[in-house]
UniProtKB/TrEMBL annotation:
This is Phosphoribosylglycinamide formyltransferase. Residues 6-185 form the Formyl transferase N-terminal domain. The active site is at residue 113. It comes from Caulobacter vibrioides OR37. One of its GO terms (biological process) is 'de novo' IMP biosynthetic process. It comes from the Bacteria. The lineage of its organism: Bacteria, Pseudomonadati, Pseudomonadota, Alphaproteobacteria, Caulobacterales. Gene3D superfamilies: Formyl transferase, N-terminal domain. PROSITE patterns: GART. Catalyzes the transfer of a formyl group from 10-formyltetrahydrofolate to 5-phospho-ribosyl-glycinamide (GAR), producing 5-phospho-ribosyl-N-formylglycinamide (FGAR) and tetrahydrofolate.
Length: 193
């Protein structure tokens, strides 16, 4: 089998998308391996989930760095490079990145966002889509660029908004699609490298 692309998944919490990527990487024909799960928060539940799945789980705690976000990202970058990581997948990583990390991994850092970008970047995407009277919501995998949720779109999945939906009900259905879309899009992306 050809060498699989080494992917690091960055998380801040439970990491359900990370878990879906780890599961996908277990398939014999998957072109990527999840070589590292890294969190900025030591109590992130996803670190435990990754370790149980046999994936290296590492915390580079943001707290000791105070307000110096770039110094924190330099420590993350060093950890990624030490492990030969080739691609980063952000999965619920709840920090806005500085130009340092964005530039260092330009064209090799992906993110998943719970809306049909370019609509509804940022937070509260489901509530905003419902309030606007949209017929559908969904999720987007995109390359990370300097602008928040503005990078080139690599893949999308659409989810109809049903009468009576609230942001929770819609969010559950969108998350199901995120788990499928991220793995499929990441596989397509790394095959093209």
């Amino acid at each position: 089998m050809t060498q699989r692309t080494k992917v690091a998944v960055l998380i801040s919490g439970r990491g359900s998308n990370m878990e879906a990527l780890v599961r996908a990487a277990q398939a014999a024909d998957c072109p990527f391996e999840i070589a590292l799960v890294l969190s900025n928060k030591p109590d992130a539940k996803g670190l435990e989930i990754a370790a149980q799945a046999g994936v290296e789980a590492l915390c580079v705690d943001q707290k000791p760095f105070g307000k110096d976000r770039e110094a924190h990202e330099r420590a993350i970058d060093a950890a990624l490079r030490e492990r030969g990581i080739e691609v980063i997948a952000l999965a619920g990583y709840m920090r806005i990145l500085t130009p340092f990390l964005v530039d260092a991994w330009e064209g090799r850092m992906l993110n998943i966002h719970p809306s049909l970008l370019p609509k509804y970047p940022g937070l509260d995407t489901h509530a905003r889509a419902i309030a606007a009277g949209e017929a559908e919501a969904g999720c987007t995998v995109h390359l990370v660029t300097a602008g928040v949720d503005e990078g080139p779109i690599l893949g999308q999945a659409r989810v109809p908004i049903r009468p009576g939906d609230d942001d929770h009900a819609l969010g559950v259905r969108v998350l199901e699609q995120e788990h499928k879309l991220y793995a499929a899009t990441l596989a397509t992306f790394v095959r093209g490298l």
